[in-house]
């Protein structure tokens, strides 16, 4: 995952995910995102999108009036360094029972294991929904 600016998002992709606006009680399920979504009020509080065909994951958070956008390419990740996760959603998303995530583990030398390499959690990325 790397931090990106709004202009670096591919707005032409088909996404699965949600966007939560500042004037809404619950997030809304979305299959698209537009540049104008970032330029108007109400603003996006939080969003998670996944382009299945391109395997691109986008995380959006608004922190103190600034967008923190993280984007990751989930294709080609080493299989021994990822864990597929599913969590029951705490958001009220109609027709959705769980959210899917991928956790990536960095390989690091561990000083407590005589310098042997171990895996340490590095980042998580949204990977879509499990529908009811």
How would you describe this protein?
The chain is mainly beta. The chain folds into two domains: 2-73, no CATH class; 79-131. 0% of the residues lie in helices and 55% in strands. The chain has no helices and nine strands. The strands form two sheets. A six-stranded antiparallel sheet has the order 1-6-5-4-2-3, with no helix packed on it. The protein has a three-stranded antiparallel sheet with strand order 7-8-9, with no helix packed on it. The two termini are 29 Å apart.
**Envelope shape:** globular
- Rounded average pLDDT: 91
Number of strands: 9
Percent in strands: over 45%
Q: How does the helix and strand content classify structurally?
A: mainly beta
Q: What integer value in Å does the Rg equal?
A: 16 Å
Low-pLDDT residue intervals, each spanning 5 or more residues:
none
Order of helices and strands: EEEEEEEEE
Helix content: under 10%
Tally of individual domains = 2
Q: Separation of termini?
A: 29 Å
């Amino acid at each position: 995952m790397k931090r990106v600016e709004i202009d670096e998002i591919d707005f032409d992709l088909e996404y699965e995910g949600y966007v939560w606006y500042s004037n809404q009680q619950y997030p809304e399920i979305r299959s698209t995102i537009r540049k104008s979504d970032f330029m108007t009020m109400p603003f996006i509080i939080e969003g998670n999108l996944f382009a299945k065909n391109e395997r691109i994951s986008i995380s959006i958070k608004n922190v103190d009036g600034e967008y923190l956008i993280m984007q990751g390419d989930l294709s080609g990740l080493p299989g021994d360094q990822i864990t597929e996760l599913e969590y029951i959603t705490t958001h009220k998303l109609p027709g959705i029972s769980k959210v899917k995530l991928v956790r990536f583990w960095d390989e690091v030398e561990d000083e407590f294991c005589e310098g042997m390499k171990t895996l340490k959690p590095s980042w998580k990325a949204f990977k879509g929904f499990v529908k009811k």
